[in-house]
Write a structure and sequence with these properties.
Blueprint lengths: L3 H26 L8 E14 L5 E12 L8 E12 L7 E10 L6 E7 L4 E3 L8 E12 L5 E11 L5 H58 L2
Antiparallel strand pairs: 1-2, 2-5, 2-6, 3-4, 3-7, 7-8
């Protein structure tokens, strides 16, 4: 007869073996899931575009993020981590990636969402590379399973670009235009003032001539007997 300890060890070994087999099957079953998520990100407004004191460009944007990630969930999915990143190239780096927003989707019931937000994290470039820069907004996700390995994928959305000038540059240009406009108006008013002054003088001379002619005619008419 086997002892109690031997029997307990055998039962525990059998339970662990069954659990390992079930976890393996659960993880393997995820390979048969063919997800088809959809996503859309819109830039509603560039709130500000400025150059920091250290020379780096910084942008603040208002975004609309909508997605349907329900197809990512299976019975083995614990949660999904998702984030939106701005991706672009510079002469220094082939890929620059800046996270703008992220979130955790705990269940399939929350997998369809629409979010109106400003960028959660600061969009800063180390240098002056953002002026007129074309970039992609990429929706990344990481599927965290209950058992097995983690899966990651993304949707790349193209066709975005930033303004050519920062807010300070625009303000300088606006002030320069206002200064030129004021100078032009002052010059125009001066010309008009001089014109009206000369016109008034010429009219005064004509009036004086007319008065002189009338006085001369008044003296001449009695002499000719008219």
């Amino acid at each position: 007869m086997h002892s109690f300890g031997y029997r307990a060890n055998a039962a525990a070994t059998f339970a662990v073996t069954i659990l390992a087999v079930m976890c393996t099957l659960a993880s393997f079953s995820d390979n048969f899931n063919l997800p088809s998520p959809t996503a859309e990100v819109k830039i509603l407004n560039i709130n500000w575009f400025q150059k920091q004191a250290n020379g780096n460009d910084e942008v603040s944007m208002t975004l609309n993020v909508s997605a349907d990630l329900s197809s990512l969930f299976t019975w083995n999915t614990k949660q999904v981590f998702v984030f939106v990143a701005a991706e672009y190239e510079t002469p220094q780096n082939a890929l620059n990636q800046v996270s703008l927003w992220d979130g955790i989707i705990p269940s399939k019931e929350h997998s369809k969402f629409w979010i109106h937000t400003t960028n959660k994290y600061r969009f800063i470039d180390q240098g002056s590379n953002l002026k007129g820069k074309e970039f992609n907004l990429t929706l990344h996700w990481h599927i965290m399973p209950k058992t097995g390995k983690m899966f990651a994928d993304k949707i790349v959305l193209t066709g975005y670009s930033l303004p050519e000038d920062t807010d300070k540059s625009k303000e300088k240009k606006r002030r320069k235009i206002q200064t030129k406009t004021k100078e032009s108006l002052k010059s125009g008013f001066s010309s008009l003032s001089l014109h009206f002054t000369l016109l008034g003088r010429s009219k005064g001379r004509e009036r004086e001539r007319e008065r002189g002619f009338r006085a001369f005619a008044a003296l001449l008419l009695p002499l000719v007997g008219l």
